Amino acid sequence: MIDLNEKDIGVFVAAVERYFHQITATAPMLRSAWLSTADEPLPSHEYTGLIEVSGDFSGNVYFSTGRATIEHLLVAMREPIRDESNLLDAVGEIANTLAGNAREYFGERLVISVPTTLRGPAPALQQRACSHPYVIAIQWQRHEAVLVVNLGRRN
């Protein structure tokens, strides 16, 4: 398995910036980005949208944030805040949009699943598909989120 390169990761960074700017007309601040080490748990928040990836790649991409972030994004999209399932649907849609934007760059070689949504910590988020998953810490207004790109390219 070959880790993604800097240009590949840049596609995901651009997807995050484009998403927030299109939805809210306010760009997020990318607080930091790093390669995770084997001894460090991958970060997550209260709500997570997980996209499994196959094709020429293996692994997953997930977007994770807290309830307040999702509620504020729903308000920005003029969507109602109804219940827990509404929040889970929203975080899944965000993850799907971000992975879909990356698929435009990678093409048919990147096959993405429908989103799986999770509340709270989940063992699936700690399974590593590459030696060093890429973590992008996001701040939008006062809200924190993370995008984890846990992908390897098949030889």
UniProtKB/TrEMBL annotation:
Every Chemotaxis phosphatase CheX-like domain range: 47-138
Transmembrane segments: none
Pfam families: CheX (PF13690)
Coiled-coil region: none
Keywords: Chemotaxis
GO terms classed as biological process: chemotaxis
Xref: InterPro entries: CheC-like_sf, CheX-like_dom
Keyword Transit peptide: no
Record protein name field: Chemotaxis protein CheX
Record organism: Derxia gummosa DSM 723
Lineage: Bacteria, Pseudomonadati, Pseudomonadota, Betaproteobacteria, Burkholderiales
